[in-house]
Amino acid sequence: MNPVEIRPGVFWVGVNDRVTDLFEGLWPISREGISYNSYLIRDEKTALIDLSKEVLTDDYLAQLSGVLDIASLDYVVINHMEPDHSGVLVRLRELAPNAILLGMPKTVRMLNDFYGITDNIEQLSNGQELSLGKNTLRFVYTPFVHWPETMMTYMVEQGVLFPCDGFGGYGALDGAIFDDTCADLAYFEAEALRYFTNIVAAYSKSVLSAIGKFAGLPIEMVAPAHGLIWRKDPGRIIELYETWSTYYREPAEVGITALFGTMYRNTERALSAALDGIEAEGVPVKVYDVRKSHVSYMLSDLWTRRGVLVAAPTYEGGLFPDMMNALAMADRKHVAHKTAAFLGSKAWGGGAQNDFEAMAQRMGWDVVGGFDFLGGPDAGDLDRARAMGQQLARAIKT
Ligand code: FEO
Fold first, then answer.
1. CATH number of the domain within which 342 lies
2. Closest of 136, 205, 194 to residue 169, by C-alpha
3. pLDDT digit string, tens, across residues 106-117
4. In the chain, is it the N or the C terminus that has fewer CB atoms within a 10 Å radius of its CB?
């Protein structure tokens, strides 16, 4: 894709990554891809905001050289040091040796830690402004969205917010880069939610704090470092992030995420009965087989639905391993304020339910039901599963 002038004198010079399989080495993007959005401001002075991952250095520099004599670059604004945004920095400095790097105090230390860079750096303070000519940049410290050094840059005269990871999402940009020109906005919103839960949600309190710092300021455009640029409705992505962030401290939407694992379909048959019970109460449910789905996708629903049904058998005296892994990631991401229930086959001995209850207690989940059964479920077990599904659904409606 070629550079795009997104506002007068402001160019998107991002690149798409369709070759990385796991973002951060953890989160699947093989199908979706991701964009590393970078922005060039051409004014009396020139400034780059956010960069790209090292693997796309050649593409990125080709992109940039289409709209800038790189050697003349004056400033590089480093909102965030994670290498998906800073990876091209060493090469860029070879081509633009006079460019001044701008970042918060922790960025200065990280520039040395990650790249051995110690010169041509200007340390910023919260709220500091920089005039480029017609345009002024204001640097707002927004720690832990999602690293300690993160800041957001606000372009005062044009009301453009460059929030880096904040308000970002997975998904390569297939030609269209704006919210009003993309072919499937719902897809990008779903991928923004997945990105939020995978990358940012554990720091929801910091996200809310960051949003508060821009309250009352005119925001005409939100230009994050991943995903769509929001120009038609910039408030939309801010509202979504704000709503999602509140779920760290209060119950989420009415709905249930059902996670199941099964070895010989005994647990799966009981799950099926429990789903009948949920359906009878008219509560929406999203079902994931933990053996087949990556937890990256489960997190979107775990985060935004207040109910969780865990159905898993005992394996070697404990919880089915794939389920244990899924719940461990939920714990890592601080998935809290859930109402939950458990069922599963004890196989020949049991142990899964105890492991589940320990995990639920650790996460502060309210467990409203749970039972297990030896071997396969008999008619009574299926009735019990159905009743438990109904009980869980009722509990989250109140
Ligand atoms: Fe897109 Fe935290 O890096």
1. 3.40.50.360
2. 194
3. 999 999 999 999
4. C
- Neighbouring CB atoms inside 10 A of 157's CB total 12
Q: Compute, in angstroms, the gap from residue 155 CA to the centroid of ligand 1.
A: 21
- Cα(119) to ligand 1 centroid in Å equals 24
Q: Residue 12: give the domain boundaries.
A: 4-246
- 271-316 pLDDT tens trace: 999 999 999 999 999 999 999 999 999 999 999 999 999 999 999 9
> What Cα–Cα distance (Å) separates residue 39 from each residue in 87, 188, 233, 292, 337?
15, 20, 20, 38, 39
In whole numbers, what is the pLDDT of the chain averaged over residues? 98
3-state secondary structure of 96: coil
What gap in Å lies between CA 360 and CA 309, rounded to an integer? 11
Shared domain for 204 and 55, answered yes or no, is: yes
Q: Ligand 1 center to residue 318 CA distance, Å? A: 36
User: Does residue 85 have a cis bond before it (omega within 30 degrees)?
Assistant: no
In sequence order, what are the beta bridge partners of 347? 374
Rounded to whole angstroms, what are the CA distances from 43 to 46, 61, 120? 6, 20, 20
How far is residue 78's CA from residue 178's CA, in Å, rounded to a whole number? 23
**Per-residue DSSP letter, 21:** S
Q: Could you read off the pLDDT of 191-203 as tens digits, one per residue? A: 999 999 999 999 9
Residues of the chain falling short of pLDDT 70: none
Whether residue 16 sits in one domain with residue 130:
yes
